[in-house]
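Need the bound structure for magnesium ion, inputs here:
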Amino acid sequence: MGIVDELLNAGIAFCDADNPNKATHAPVTLHPTPFPLKKFAQATSLQPLFNELIYQCVQQRHLLEDVCRDLISSAKKDEFVDALFGIWERCQFKSPEIFFNISRSDYMLDEHARLEPKLCQVELNTVSVSLAGLSTRVSHWHKARLSFNEQQAMPDNDAIDKIAAGFSEALRVYAATFQVPFESLHIAMVVHPKERNVYDQNSLIEAIDLPGQIHKVHLTDTMPVDPLSGRLLWNDKEIAIVYYRTGYDPSDYVDQACWNLRLTIEQSRAIKCPDIAAHLAGLKKLQQVLCQDEQLCKIIVDAEKRAALQACFTGIYSLDNVEAVSRAKQAPANFVLKPQREGGGHNYYNDQVRDALIHLSADELQSFVLMERIRPHPRITSIIKNNHLFENVSTISELGIYGVVLMAPNVCINYAAGHVLRTKPDTSDEGGVVAGFSALDSVILV
Ligand code: ADP
Ligand code: MG
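Answer from helper R.:
Posting the output first, comments after.
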């Protein structure tokens, strides 16, 4: 069997861009990529702390609220953040009764002019984190191609089972909290109508393993709330968890009805994954603000935890930082300029950084952050993409660690939940796999 058939058989696939009924293999590396054991362990151990950070940002709300107000107060206000924030405000900034989030913290190794690589956080994702299913499959596919000895150096990757376990637990907590039989509860996975990453989504549905209790829904669907109990309904079924795999980009909201649904869901008693505040906690602007020790202190009181988090931070500056902006104009290749968007393809690199800093107005730049560029050493590998094998590609990799956090009265569940490695040609600035920049990869520890 050829490699492409093997990948399709293993479900390492996307829907074809032109024909949704046809599968096309996902881009993958032929072999796992070496990653330093110490840095992998560091990234894994950080995940519960990042989960705590998200939870605390939501609970303590004032810092997050200030960041949002800043973004929506300028003349060139961020309409998307404004709409999300408006919902949070309409809900009176209430903390959810049951807090549930699936996170992913992404890292690259900075190896430029250093004796030891530094693990550097690229960003913290709190909404619609994907690829746990495909990444688990790629780890298994790679493993099967290795010798017994090599296999021992691959860390277990049970991302999809660990995330699925989070959903089962959240459902149990909902059943106990509202005294409803577990069997009568349902999960609504909110998906994009033109989603290509369907096999990844389906692998989570399979892993949760509650046939008939998980449904794919759209932001254009109708989901009424029972005003007395707060129960959220979809086709007369009680929805206990609304899990967003879309809704992080302004274009996902095709009309006002989509926003109305988001508000309705938020006001219901259903568990939101994520709720509006946790969604906003993934803002790059918040990441930048938390890089300042005096701000992080407000959210994480324990100095040891703070130091652990800060050890993976890279310089991120707001655009009123004259010194940083001047350095970026002089050496734009050392920086990445990021607007408040998710999902890849939005950042500015190299000369684009200088051009934007010169030509965009202060109002336009207010919502951007300026980040020091992380520089991993390139590695030579082989990538299978578009049914072709590309050999001797010079690449760099990005490690993502998944996290599950579930908080409710007498419930505190918080753990790291597997990983994904994405590898891209070192000539490519952006990183998305579905967007076609990166290949799925797995880790071999060295
Ligand atoms: P998005 O929300 O679009 O995924 P990211 O912050 O993850 O935004 O940026 C997209 C991609 O750009 C990343 O996957 C990474 O490949 C690259 N990138 C982002 N920040 C940096 C950085 N500081 N240094 C080097 N590459 C970066
Ligand atoms: Mg990213």
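Comments: The pocket of magnesium ion (ligand 2) is lined by residues 106, 123, 431 (CB under 6 Å). The first helix runs from residue 3 to 9.
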